[in-house]
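ok trying again, last paste got cut off:
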Amino acid sequence: MPAITIRPERLLADLHRLRAFGAYRTGVHRPTYAPDDMAARRWLVTRMQEAGLCARMDGIGNIIGENAAARRRLLVGSHSDTQNYAGWLDGAMGVIYGLEIARAFVEAGTPGGAGVDAAVFADEEAHFASFLGSRSAIGMLGEDEIDHARNMTTGQPLRDALDAAGLAYAARTILDPTRYAGYLEAHIEQGGDLEARGLRLGVVTSIVGIDQYRITFTGSRNHAGTTPMAIRRDAGAALVRFAHEIDERFRRCAAERTVWTIGDIKVFPGQVSIIPDKAEMLLQVRDADAGVLRTFRAQIEALVGEMAASGPCPASLEVIAESPPHLMADSLQAALREAAARIAPGAWQDMPSGAGHDAQILARVMPAGMLFVPSIGGVSHHVDEDTAEEDIVLGCEVLAAACGHILETGGEAA
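nice, full thing came through this time. structure:
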C-alpha cells in the first residue's frame, strides 16, 4: 500500500472552520442540538461529500461518511458537540482527523480496496445522556430512554430537541461491526502528563470506568431561628457530614489514579432562614480498575446504610450512570506504537485515559484504539484549551500511518 499522505494546511483550515461554529472567546460553546451544533454538523456532511464520501446525518445527529469503494475499512472519528463555554479541540480534533484521513484514502485511490469511514457522534458530552450518539450507533439506546431524557441544564425533553433540530423523523443508523477492522479516535490528552514529560504522543492502553451517583438526604423543614440545634433534622448538614466522611474513606482505599468529584449540591427549599428538608449531591468516581470501582460503591452503600440506621436524616442512593473500564485492542495499540516510533521516535508513551470517550462504547462491538496529543498546560473543558499546531499535524500523520498499516495487514470487511 502506498503511504497515505495528509495535507496539514487543509487539516488545520477545516479544524479552524469548525471552531467558528459557536465561537466563544478563545473557545467554543456548541451544546448538543443547539443551532450552532446543528450548523456544524450540516457543514461536516457537506465537507465529507466534497471529499467523495457518502455522508448523511441520522435521527440522533450522528454522521457517517462512507468510502463506498472500500472493501477493507476502519472507522475514524469522535464527537463535535462541546461542553458549555469550553474548549475548541475536545472532540473536534478527532472529527477532523477522521475527515482528513478518509479524504486522503480517497485521494490515494482507495489503494487495494482499503479505506476509512469518518464518524461524528452526538452528545458525547452528555447534555442529554452519556454517550448518546455512540450508544445509539451500536444499538444500546432504546426509544424509552429517548422518551425520558432531558437536557441536564435546561430541562428540555430530548424529543423536543430532536424535533427542533429537524431530526425527529429521521431514522437512526446502527453500525455493522463486520464492516470494520476497528475504530480509532484521536483526542487531546486533557491532562498534563505528556507536556510534563516532554512527549508529543500517547498511545492509550485503557479508558477509565466512570460511576455516577445521586445521594439524597431527607430531613424536616422548620424555622431556622426558633428550632434548637439538638432537635433539628437538617438535610443540608447531613449532606456535608456525608461528603466529609466519604472523602476520608475514599482516600484510604484509592488506587494511584482513582479520582472522585462532588459535582453538584442542592438544598431545598434553599432559603437561609429555613432548615432544609431535602438535600442532594451528585458524586462521580473514576478508575481504570473495575475492582476499585466496586470497592468504592461498597463504601458509599455502607455509609448510606449507616446514616439510615443512625439518623436523624436518612440517605438514599441512586446509580444514575455507570460505564465500565475498557482496554484498547492490542492490535490497534501495536499499530499506533509502530507508527509513533517510526514518525516520532522517542516522543511517545503508553498511557491510560482518565476521561471517557466514544471509543469505550465502540469497543463493545469492535476493536478500538486511541491516540493522544498534548494539552498545553493540561487544560481542558475551558476556553484556554489548546494544542500546538505542529502536535496536531503530527498526531494526524501518525494516525493515518497506523490506519494504513492496519488495513494493509488485515481487516477484510464481511
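cool. The radius of gyration is 23 Å. The domain at 8-207+327-409 is CATH 3.40.630.10 (Aminopeptidase).
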